[in-house]
Specification:
Shape: rod-shaped
Largest sheet: 3 strands, antiparallel
Helix content: 40-55%
Number of strands: 10
Number of helices: 9
Low-confidence stretches: none
Structural class: alpha+beta
Distance between the termini: 126 Å
Length: about 280
């Protein structure tokens, strides 16, 4: 027996007592093992069909003898030997397993209700712990993934959930990996699949985005008008310096109108012809 102190995850300390299990078999266990060997010898060669077992490359076998875990770790891949009546074994698949986390409805940090679903990929890293320390590692990992997803969503705002899914996936993977490590389970990857928002919130966000686009369009149109007015001012200054340029502009306008094949006829009238009329009218008044 050994006595010691251990620091807990919450920062406290706890006292523990460890009892060493006896390595030798008891009388009953020894008698059962000897009886099994006798039965094996008496029923040869037919008993060999029940004594030799095979596991695949991606499998491991955890063997129990009269309820005790046999030393030597998990067996496999290949063939292994068990004694009839006293040995039992459990196969563990080491391949990567994936499952979908059902849509979880949670309240975000900024009090918005969202529904998020994800996909989790995991594999068995330690077959002994997966069999001995947890009843059903697959079901336990699924339940833990659902609660972890809800807990992480509660610490993030809506903007973070929509824009930074990779960080949420990484945080969820880290939390799951730490929790499932004593079970011999290794969480390899977590992916956020979809984020669903309430219909009213979707309409509000769409209206906000549309108003923002209209505001940007008005700003762009105003900038265009300002640039156009500056260009027109520069053009008017050039025409004012050369009176012949105005006449050339008249001729260019007539050329453009005649190219469109319409019935509109325009006669340009120089403003200099009307100057005497304006002068006489000014003198009368």
């Amino acid at each position: 027996m050994s006595v010691g102190w251990k620091r807990t995850d919450s920062g406290g300390y706890e006292c523990f007592l460890e009892y060493e299990e006896p390595s030798t078999m008891g009388c009953v266990e020894l008698a059962a093992t000897i009886g099994s060997i006798v039965i094996l010898v008496l029923t040869l060669p037919f008993s060999l069909f029940w004594c030799f077992k095979v596991v695949q490359e991606y499998e491991r076998a955890v063997i129990f003898r009269l309820g005790r875990l046999r030393t030597g770790g998990a067996r496999g891949p290949g063939i292994f030997f068990i004694l009839p009546c006293v040995d039992s074994y459990c196969k563990v698949d080491l391949r990567t397993v994936s499952f979908d986390v059902p849509p979880q409805e949670a309240l975000t940090k900024d009090s918005v209700t969202v529904t998020v679903d994800a996909a989790v990929y995991y594999r068995i890293q330690d077959p002994l712990n997966a069999v001995v320390k947890v009843t059903n590692y697959s079901n336990s990992t699924r339940l833990l993934a659902m609660t972890t997803l809800r807990n992480i969503l509660g610490t993030r705002s809506l903007a973070e959930i929509l824009s930074d899914r990779e960080a949420i996936s990484h945080a969820m993977q880290t939390s799951l990996d730490v929790a499932t490590e004593p079970w011999g389970v290794k969480v390899e990857r977590v992916e956020i699949k979809d984020v669903s928002l309430p219909q009213q919130l979707q309409r509000a966000m769409a209206a906000e985005a549309e108003a923002s686009r209209e505001a940007r369009a008005k700003v762009i149109a105003a900038e265009g008008e300002m640039k156009a007015s500056r260009a027109l001012k520069e053009a008017s200054d050039v025409i004012n310096e050369s009176p012949a340029a105005l006449q050339l502009r008249y001729l260019q306008t007539l050329n453009n109108i005649s190219a469109e094949k319409n019935s509109t006829i325009i006669f340009p009238l120089p403003l200099d012809l009307l100057a005497p009329f304006y002068t006489n009218r000014t003198q009368i008044f």
